[in-house]
Structure formats: C-alpha cells, structure tokens
Amino acid sequence: MVGGGLIGLAIAHELGRDGAAVTVLEKDDFAQHQSSQNWGFVRQQGRSPAELPLMKLANSLWQRLSDDLGYDAGWTMGGNLAVFETQKQEAAYRRWLEIGQAAGIESRFVTGREAADLIPGWKREIRGGIFAASDGQADPEAAARAYVQACRKSGVSMHAHTPALALLTEEGKIRGVQTRTGTIQTSEVVLASGAWSRQILRQAGINLPQNYVHGTVSLTTPHEPVTRTTVWGPGFSFRQRRDGRFICAMGGGGLVDIGLDTIAQTTAFFGAFRRNWKKFALRPGRQIPQELRALLSGQPAASYGPPRARVDTRQPRLALKRLKDTVRGLEGLQIDRSWSGLIDSTPDGLPVIDNKVGIEGLTLATGFSGHGYGLVPAVGLVASELVQGKTPSEDLTAMRFGRFNDGDYVPPNAIL
What we know:
By secondary structure, the chain is α+β, with helices and mostly antiparallel strands. It is built from 14 helices and 21 strands.
C-alpha cells in the first residue's frame, strides 16, 4: 500500500482483515495531509449521480464504523442542510433532488422557515434548501486514529516516514516498491497517495490527469451546542464539533497554483475550469523553479510533485463572518487556528478506483477531488475487492482509469 491517508488505511484494514499480508508506506505521518485537514462532512447530498451509489454504501458503513473498527471514528448523524439563494441555484437543486430521490437518498426540499427550524438561531435570508437527515459528520482526527489502531490490530505492517520512491515493474507487471531503505518485493501494489499520485505514476510511465487545490479550513473557539447538522451554502459552510468548536470554510473552491504542469494539463481540465472558475483564486505556483529544473534535466514537470499546501489568508476572516451572518448568538467566536490541505482533483471530479491501468498488479484509489472523506469506508471495501479479484460491491465503471484516454468523461456535475 503506497499512501497512509484514510483511503489507504481503509483499504489496508479491509485486506488485513481478510487475511492478506499488507504493508503500508507513508511519506509522513499517517493521515497527516488532506485526510485530517478536511471539513469532516459525510454527505450524500449534492454529489455527482455517478458517485451516489458508492456514497450510499459509505453512509451505511459510517453508521456502524466505530463498532466495525473497534475504536471511536467520531461519527455523528445530524443531517446535512444545503441552501440556495438564487432562482438559478434553486433550479439546479430541484434537478438534483429528483436524481437523489430516484437513487434512494431521502433528501427533501425545505423552505427558509424550515431551515430556521433545523438550525437554532438561523438568520440568513435564503430561497430554500435541501435536507438529508441520514447525512452526518465525523471528526477526521478521530477517524484517522481509529483506522490506524484497527490496521495494527488486523496485522498490517505500518511504516510512517517511509516514502515510496518508485514502483518497480518488469514486463508490464508490478515487481516491487523502491524505498530509501531498500526494495519491498511484491506482485500487488495499491496506490492511494492522493496529491502525490501523478508524480509516482509518471515515473512508471502512466499519465494520470491530476491538479491540486489548496483548501483553507478554520477552527473557532468553543461555544455551547447549537447544531449537529452540517451546513453548506454559496460562499459558506460549517459544522459544530462535539467539543463545541465550529469548523468553517468558504463553501468550496480554493487556491490553485499555476505551474508548468498545470499549464500542460489545460486541455484535460478546461471544461472543469470553465464551469467552476468563480470558485477559485489563481496564483503563480511556487514550484515553478523546481519544475524548470526537472525539465532541464530531461524529465516532465510532473516528476517534481505537488506544491506544499498553503493557507489563503483572506479566507478565515471571511468564513467566520459568514458563519456569524448565518447564525445569531455567535458574536463572541474567534478563529483559533486555520490550515490548508491539498485537494487532488481530476477533470471530471470523480476518483479513479481501478486495477486496469496499464501495469498488472497495480490498483489505483486516488483523485477524490474533495469528496473522498465521506467515501472512505466504501472505498476501503470496493478497492480491497478489486485487489482480491472479487466483483466490487458497487459498479465502478464511471471511476475507471481509461475514461481519460477514451475522452469518456464530462466536467464535474456535482452541485456541492
């Protein structure tokens, strides 16, 4: 297993529980990056229709995950409220509501007054929203601790601060993984390395279209309990943790570095950018000097890897203001700290979960485009089934790697 974030840990746990000998290689601490730096939302609402069946499975698994792992995964079922403010947004939400209900999601339309009934102290003027009572939240750090402990209990060999330097192949088959301390011989590798996947795959001759978004999140000082419901709206989002602190962010989007590798992928990502450009702030990438050195040495710019995550310093203040503008009684809240994670994105906003990628014995579970946290337990299950030659519990056709080579994909069509 290359990658010790939550996706990698979930797959490793499932394989270990099934009796496989599993080694996890993680370049830093386990779940250090986006796995522990996301919003903590576990929602079915607003997802791409292609992702809904897998997310329905994930939701059912989250509800019993603490019992399954034997450790507290931080799950709370308080529902998800997603609100809209314009007629155009309402039309998109109503279209999605038909799709979601047809897929078995129990989302329902709510008026502005009903939103105020769901969230005590609600004061923002809205046209309406949709609400799914079975959606919820889970503390990312608690989930990470639970999976690490469960992996160790199931016999997984865990190696933090052990980066995979290269995938070793012979005649189109996996033969091992090169690390700083030597070679691990294996005929099966699962690559679940998030934003670092493109770099590793390029070294193996595989071109995965992948870009990165810096997603800024803030944590407030504590407050008495207000709501267990996660809330998303245009330009704002929040949830209240068990300890009373709010997680708040700007409701999607983020900071995008423009580097040489970003420019090289313009064709693949043009549709996604055209549809969502208002959500992103573009900045010259700090990795350009390293990319230039890679090119001068005869390597592609992608061989350098992703940039270091950085906070958009404007967002914490705005996210807190919009939280206070939405719920009365929070005037005393302050930002305790803010952080940023690297969200790895694909041209259609869907992940790659596939073992037919051009190298026998290699399975990919990457490219989750900001939606991966909610999917964690389901991806653990279906990817482990792929590795073991079983039929996956859900159809993964829309998440096959070959769609990019075939041009068989559309720009992201999730509404949240």
